[in-house]
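Protein modeling request. Please complete all fields; requests missing the sequence field cannot be processed.
Requester role: graduate student
Desired output: 3D structure, C-alpha cell encoding
Chains: 1
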Amino acid sequence: MTPPALSRPALGVFWMLVTGLCFVAVTALVKVLGPRIPAPEAAFLRYLLGLVFLVPMIRPLLRARVSRRQWTLFGARGAVHSIGVMLWFFGMTQIPLAEVTAMNYLSPVYVTIGAALFLGEKLALRRILAVAAALLGALIILRPGFREVNMGHLAMLFAAVVFAASYLLAKILTDELSPVVVVAMLSVWVTIGLAPFAAAVWVTPTLGEIALLFAVACFATAGHYTMTLAFQAAPMTVTQPVTFLQLVWAVTLGAVVFGEPADGWVVLGGCIIMGSISFLTWREAMLKRRVVAPPAPATKV
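Delivered output (301 residues):
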C-alpha cells in the first residue's frame, strides 16, 4: 500500500480513470472484431502480437533462475489462463458490453474463496458476507428463469473462475520471483497454449482484423501500466471505487455505438458486485492485511 506521506489521491484517481478507459476500449475493440475470427484464434493473435511489448523484459527473463517447480507452476498458469482467455473472447461476441464488464468483477470474489480454500487464508465473516453479496449481484445480472441465460453468460462465469485460479498461481509465483518475470512468462506461455487451438479453427484474418487485435494488445498493456501508476500514487481504497465508472462507460458505449439497450438490472447487479469488492478492499486496508484478490479492473486479455 502507498505510504500516506507519498499518497497523491488526485493522481491515483486520474490514472485509474485512464485505466478504465483503456480496458473498456479493449472490450469495445473485441466487440467490433465480431465472431468471424474464432475466439481461440483471436486470443492467440492478440497474445502473439503483444509479444512485442516483452522486448524490454528479455534481459530480466534471461537472468531469472527458475526452478523445476516454478516451471510447472508457469505451465499450469499458462494452461488455465489460455482457457479463460478463449472463454472471454467468445463471451464478448455473445453478450452486451455492460454485462461483460459487470461479470468481470466476479474474478476477485472467486480469488477470495480460492485463497481461503487453497492458500489457508482466513475467511472472516466480512469476507463471507461480501462474497454472498457479489454472488447475489451475479444472480441479478443473469436472472435465471426470468431471461435467457445463453452460452455467452456461461462462458463469462467460467472465465471468471479460471482467471481466479490464474491469479492464485500468480500470487504463489510473485512471492518467489520478480513480477516482471511472472508477467512475461504468462504472455509467453499463453501464446504457446493458444497456438494449437488457433490452428484447429484457423481463418485467415484481414489486415484490418490484425490491426484491431494489435490495438487490443496496446490498450491492454497500457491499461496494466496505468493501473500500476495508480497504485503507486494512491492506496487501493482510493482507486478501487473509481473502477465502477467502467460499468458506466460500458453501458454508454454499448447504447451509443452498438445499439445495446441499457439494462437497469445489469447496472444494479454490477453495483452490488463492485460494492462488495470495494468493501473488502477497505476492510483489508483498515486491518493492514495484504489483499490477495486482484483489483477489479484488471483485464484478463
